[in-house]
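lol ok so funny story. i was supposed to be doing the assay writeup but got distracted and ended up predicting the structure for this chain instead. priorities right. anyway since i did it might as well share w the group, maybe its usefull for someone
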Amino acid sequence: MGLGLQLARAYPEAAHTFEEADDILGFALSRLCWEGPEDELVLTQNAQPAILTHSVAVFRIVGEPLGEISHAAGHSLGEYSAHVAAGTLSFADAVAGVRLRGQLMFAAGTKRAGTMAAVIGLTDDELIAICEAASVGGRVCVPANFNCPGQVVISGDEEGVEEGMRLATEAGARRVVPLTVSGAFHSPLMAPAAKGLRAKLNDLNFGDPHFPVVSNVTSGPVTDGDTARELLVDQLTSPVRWAGCMREMLSAGVDRFIEMGPGSVLCGLSRRNARGVPCRAVGEPEDIDALLSEGSDHA
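and the output, tada:
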């Protein structure tokens, strides 16, 4: 609870960003973020615009002082924040888009129940083979997130994921952890959501990003708005190739990463994907104050 509250109290830019989201969405997202109830905030149709708003608020504070930005990327929902930072999408369009994205994803999960699980300690190829073996007899089990070496999330219907978890355990996975989610995200079960999202994104204005945004779908740089639109739709039913995104940025010469928004999950993954390369999570006033006090000429 209190998502972005201290940020809004400390920085007028952040307070304005939450106010803007309230106006665009037509309800008090800020109040939900700051006061709850938590069980309503964590619903994907609310959590997605809440996290985007927090991330954009941080960027609006630190973006200009950071100076030149060479690349941006975001994990799943975070790819929208990256495109806002790059100027591909306006914040108004992005927050309305991800609100609908969350609603569509929730509806798809209601239409056909699905789940996800994290598998630790197996290779990508091993997990791909396990998912293929689990996807028989009408079951669905696919890799959903290639987060870092040895950490892959699987997704699908309940029977398919249960079978994938069983096979992963038999194959020697160190840990297999069921995830609390409202659907089989980044799997074929999100196809109905992708159809609705395409219709929405086709109505939004996509410009060419000011700097490359690395795609979850391809792990390659996106430099034009039309491609960005298509890949954001494809993302719903495709795996997040986060380890590949990190490799792409490292190969392009990125020498430090700044994670903007709530939490520090991506900095945790960075320790595996980009060992020795600095990564800093910036989400609260003290984080921003420390970053800005250091100064920077690139990110």
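The longest helix spans residues 44-66. The chain has two domains: 5-109+188-294, 114-179.
back to the writeup now i swear
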